[in-house]
Design goal:
Elements lengths: L2 H13 L3 E6 L3 E3 L3 H8 L6 H11 L4 E3 L8 E8 L6 H7 L3 E5 L8 E7 L4 H12 L7 E4 L5 H6 L2 E5 L4 H6 L2 E3 L6 H6 L16 H8 L6 H7 L5 E5 L6 H10 L3 E12 L2 E10 L1
Parallel strand pairs: 2-3, 7-8, 8-9
Antiparallel strand pairs: 1-2, 1-4, 4-6, 5-6, 10-12, 11-12
Amino acid sequence: MTREQQDKTLKLLRKNGIFCTMEGRYGSYTDEGFKEFLAEKGREDGNSELLRWREHLEESLDVRPMEEYDGEPIYKIVFMCERGDQLAEPREALEEEFQFCIQDEGDRGVINGELINRKFDKGRGVERVCRHLGIDVEDTIAFGDSMNDVEMIETAGVGVCMENGSAALKKLADEICPAVTEDGLQNTISGYDNFLYLGSWIPHSPWYDAKFERQGIADPARALYEDPEVFVVFMNTEGINYDYLTDFYAENYPGVSLKVVDTVDVSNDLQFLILKGTAD
């Protein structure tokens, strides 16, 4: 999102009494009064996105007041309001460039959504990663819980919605798995032996080791630098890094270092890093 787009969007949303939260690479910034709005409107049986933001604010998970915004690049604006008519003017002015991704409306009438640049979506991200790695899209599995996951769920070979996710997304998904609080992701993908996990890897975790063992890899930590076919894929975006893996190898495998051997650009603010271990 350019600074011009950002300023125009915030002006229109605020003019219509809509609360905004900007998400950047290093933090999120929210309007004054947003926390009070959620405290008044939010309920434990509300939609997953509404509850997520409520928890982020209540637990102070790097959500800062808007006045602390320092100009860092913004990739998404989340909005909340009470009535659909509040979005009429912003939609007329912005829908050519941005998709208004509306989550399920809560039973107290809270309209919760986000603006997504029409040039990028998670479905295109799946396609680009598959092209880069030479993987058939039909061999991919996508897990989501909100309406910003629609394109990804529709693109992947198998689209799975979490039980605690959007009711509308469940209708589009191929499968519904247990909620996050019931280890739904882990329990579901345990049935897929060829699953490539994008995001993180915990060395010597029993669950991860079991996945590798089914592929004939007894020691995945060692295989990362000994087996030419074993790589780790990481998302290079806000709040995610592989420092813990670097520390793990420094402590347990002296002389082994991790190197980025390739990158896959998904959007302006998201890359997949392909990591490989090398022994000195």
